[in-house]
Amino acid sequence: MHNLKIAVIGNPGSWSTEVLADALEKKTGYKCVVEMSQVTMDFDSRSLFQGEVDLASLDALVIKKIGPVYSPDMFNRLEILRFFCKIGIPVYSRPERIMAAINRLSCTVTLQKGDIPMPPTVITENINQAVKAVKKFGKAVFKPLYSSKARGMLVVEDHDNCRSEIENFQASGNTTMYIQKMIDIPGKDLGVAFLGGKYLGTYARRQGESWNTCTSSGGKYEPYEPSQEIIELAQKAQSLFDLDFTCVDVVETDQGPMVFEVSAFGGFRGLINACSIDAAALYSEYVINDLSS
Fold this sequence. Notes:
Layout lengths: L5 E4 L5 H14 L4 E2 L4 E4 L4 E4 L2 E2 L5 E4 L9 H12 L6 E2 L2 H8 L1 H10 L7 E4 L2 H11 L1 E5 L10 E4 L4 H10 L5 E5 L6 E8 L2 E9 L13 E4 L4 H12 L5 E9 L2 E7 L6 H7 L3 H14 L1
Helix pairs in contact: 1-9, 2-3, 3-4, 5-6
């Protein structure tokens, strides 16, 4: 398969982008990382270029990241790729499937329509209703619609000053407020990974000193053997999006396992560090085998 030219759309220099590009290069002899902010689409000529690289001349694109930060700009970039698919070049995962997961509200709506158990959640632009939700929950996590690794999230408790905290959160760019009840977790949550819709493995994120389990906040990856119930729940959740590679964030609660979200891109590091699963190599094999079928 050394004649295949497969580019990775991602963030040049970032670990997950480069490890996937390296894995593809190892199997094909070709390496190309595409940064979407440097891409130009010409609708008349049906061309998509990064510098001198004509992406329409490649055999496939694999989307690992769509930008260094989560923002509405991601939708613009994915729309370009959605049109690019008309040219007939395979894209993994399909842009429209990523679009359903990349926005926290869109992801939640899809999960709710699929009857996936989640922590109680309220969506509102109204400050009074947001205060009411905090009083109802006792303690709530306010989550930006575009964020990862708990960036920009705010924990708000029911107290006299909670209104001002909520007003500040909304004023900082969160017109639509995503408010989720803060639930007790058993010191960890889980990343349940799937490749081509098939279960790949599970890692735990052990909580550090922070309220969240993110490794950027002191959390640690650990191996974990989930119950069949957890695997089946995560399988059902990811099937609603049909992504080529993804991780489902699951938490065990007194009411049973619940899903926080389905990742638009999925993570490699937890799988390699906790489970010794080289997801980048497996993903590259999956893409090459699919192109060969």
